[in-house]
Structures are given as structure tokens and as C-alpha cells.
Specification:
It contains nine helices and ten strands. By secondary structure, the chain is of the alpha/beta class. It has one domain: Divalent-metal-dependent TIM barrel enzymes (TIM Barrel). The radius of gyration is 18 Å and the shape is globular. Strand 1, helix 1 and strand 2 form a beta-alpha-beta unit. The protein has an eight-stranded parallel barrel. Strands 8-9 form a two-stranded antiparallel ribbon.
């Protein structure tokens, strides 16, 4: 299951066409503008067409990504309220479409401490899943380690998972974010140590999807800047070793790299396939 983040421009179901055009077998979308709070309901007809194309495509798993504006870790009541509402509604949108995984950024505790941020994210997930009548699973995305961010450390991901009362929650590991936050992925030994630590702290069974991105920044730079596969600081050999870690290649693998056009997307797909076990 390898794919990219694809556009829904024109019609939501066109995501399948765009994914298939580049040879992808999974994909990630935004169901709405990721840079706005306001959104319109998804028309029933659009839901029907999307689900019909899903059946025809044979895609085993597809992903949605939360908009960028919500800060689920925020201790500020106004931000917390609108962020939680956004998550509740996004889960409902995913449920209606039959999307398997909703990837969420955890946000910033704004200097109030990790414990506060962890508790707020967990409460937001509990609220969203309690109001869900579908099967969408929320995936916590590890962060790059920016100041006051929640989720760069595996212990923080585990703390959130332990506080979520529903089973439909897991983790999406982003390789750029891992590297930027200090987890080396540049060799077989480094990958074994870093991913092995994730397994020890969180549990490999909680890993449901991967964001496969190279890094523009150095190890531990806390710089969330994605690079094309094999062209960044992790490098081609590091990406290969990560993909060869037992079980990784069995998860949906999504690239969020700075491709420019369909030709670049196809090249990215070929590159990743050449590095698979």
C-alpha cells in the first residue's frame, strides 16, 4: 500500500483517479480546505460516488488528514472548543466516506506543560470517537519537536493512547518528524534502535500508517521540512533500512514530499518501490 497525498479538486472522488494515474495503491486527502475553519457538509451524492469508486478501486486502506488550524493540545478554552469541534466533525466526515484512518497533528501546549497537552489531546479524541457511529480510526502523528509541541517523544504518544477509552486510535509515524526530533534513521543499526524504542514504549501493533518523508533538516534540528525521498538528510539508504524494518512495509505508506507535477509523483512512487523489501 503505497501512495501520496492527492487533491480532491473538482470532486472528492477524483482522488481515486489521481492516485491510480500515478500507480498508487493508497492515498491521503483533505476532505476540506486545510487552512480554513469553515467548511460545507459533504453532499450525499458525493459520498455515494466516493464509496462506489472505493469498491471499484480495491484500495485496502485510505487516509484523511486533519486541517492545519486546530490545536488539540491547547489549554486556551476558545481554541480548545473550536479545535475539538473540528475533530468531531472530521471524524463524522471520514465515517460517512468510509475513510479508514484520520491522521491528526497534536498541537502545542503553549507553555503549560506536556501533561496538560497530553490530557487535552486525549480528551479531544475521546469526545470525537464517542460521537462517531462509523469505523474511522484516529492516528496520532508524531511531531518534529518544535517548542511546546506534544507528541515528538514516544512516551507522550503512549500517554495519550493510554488515556483514550476507545479502541479506534493508533499512530502514524512520520520519518521526517522522527529524524528532526532526534531519532536517527540513517543506517540499519539506527533504524533498529529508533523503531525498536517505539515498539518498546508504544508497541509496534499501534503503528497503523507511515508518512514516508526525507528531511531537509539535520538530525535533532526540530525542523519540519520534508524533502523528496533519498534527497534529504535521512538519505536513500536510511529510507531503505526503515522500509526493511519488519512490519513497516505492511502498513499504508504515504509520501508528503515536495513533488511538482504528475511526473515527479510517478518518480517518487518508482523510487519508493525500488527501496521496498
Amino acid at each position: 500500500m503505497i501512495g501520496l497525498h492527492v487533491s480532491i479538486a473538482g470532486s472528492m472522488d477524483l482522488a481515486f483517479d489521481r492516485a491510480e494515474a500515478i500507480g498508487a495503491t493508497t492515498f491521503q486527502i483533505f476532505t476540506r480546505n486545510p487552512n480554513q475553519w469553515k467548511f460545507k457538509p459533504i453532499p450525499d451524492e458525493a459520498v455515494t460516488v466516493f464509496r462506489e469508486k472505493r469498491k471499484k478501486s480495491g484500495f485496502r486502506k485510505i487516509l484523511d488528514h486533519m486541517p492545519y488550524l486546530p490545536n488539540l493540545a491547547s489549554p486556551e478554552k476558545s481554541t480548545m472548543k473550536i479545535s475539538r469541534y473540528s475533530l468531531v466533525e472530521e471524524v463524522k466526515r471520514c465515517d460517512s466516506l468510509g475513510v479508514d484512518y484520520l491522521v491528526i497533528h497534536l498541537g502545542s501546549h503553549l507553555g503549560k506543560g506536556t501533561a496538560v497537552g497530553v490530557a487535552n489531546v486525549a480528551e479531544a479524541c475521546n469526545e470525537a470517537l464517542a460521537g462517531s457511529a462509523g469505523g474511522t480510526t484516529i492516528l496520532l502523528e508524531n511531531m518534529a519537536g518544535q517548542k511546546n509541541s506534544v507528541g515528538a517523544r514516544f512516551e507522550e504518544l503512549e500517554m495519550i493512547l493510554a488515556r483514550v477509552k476507545q479502541e479506534r486510535v493508533g499512530v502514524c509515524l512520520d520519518t521526517c518528524h522522527m529524524y528532526a526530533s532526534g531519532f536517527d534513521l540513517t543506517s540499519k543499526e539506527a533504524v533498529a534502535t529508533s523503531v525498536g524504542l517505539f515498539d518498546e514504549v508504544v508497541g509496534f501493533d499501534r503503528l497503523k500508517a507511515v508518512h514516508l518523508n526525507d528531511s531537509k533538516g539535520e538530525l535533532g534540528s526540530k525542523l519540519d521540512r520534508h524533502e523528496n525521498i533519498g534527497e534529504g538528510k535521512i538519505g536513500r539508504s536510511g529510507i531503505r533500512e526503515f522500509l526493511h524494518f519488519p512490519g513497516v512495509a505492511e502498513r499504508p505508506i504515504i509520501m508528503e514530499t515536495p513533488y511538482k507535477d504528475e511526473a515527479a509523483e510517478r518518480k517518487t512512487m518508482r523510487t519508493v518501490r525500488s527501496l521496498l523489501p
